[in-house]
Amino acid sequence: MDRELKGEVRELITGLLEMQKLIRAEGEASEECFDGLSGLRDSLESVRDDAENALNDLPEQKKYSTFGETLEEEISVMEDTMDLLDEGLALREEDGDISRDLLDILYEAAEMLNDISRPAG
User: Fold this and answer.
1) Of 10, 16, 24, 82, which sits 20 to 30 A from 47 (CA to CA)?
2) 1 pLDDT above the threshold of 90
3) What are the distances in angstroms from CA 100 to CA 22, 61, 83, 97?
């Protein structure tokens, strides 16, 4: 993944961490939190789409190299993270205090994205 996309992933991680702070400060998962989470999920989908386009635009030789395989793995991580964020958004429909569950999801999503946001090298 190129530097620009990695930068966008780091911004998403920052957003997930800010969401955690908001939940802790409010003591609950508010509608504002779920709206923010929805926006982060949409942003991640856009980054994933950009990464898929970059992969598709690679010449055949590079697509099937270590570089291409790494990009495919990063795309897979983003898709898994989007699924996890969808689980978090589904908590909106649950009764009771779901803040702990949502905090766990936000933490796990940030960890997953952190794995792909590091510079190559």
Assistant:
1) 24
2) no
3) 13, 46, 18, 8
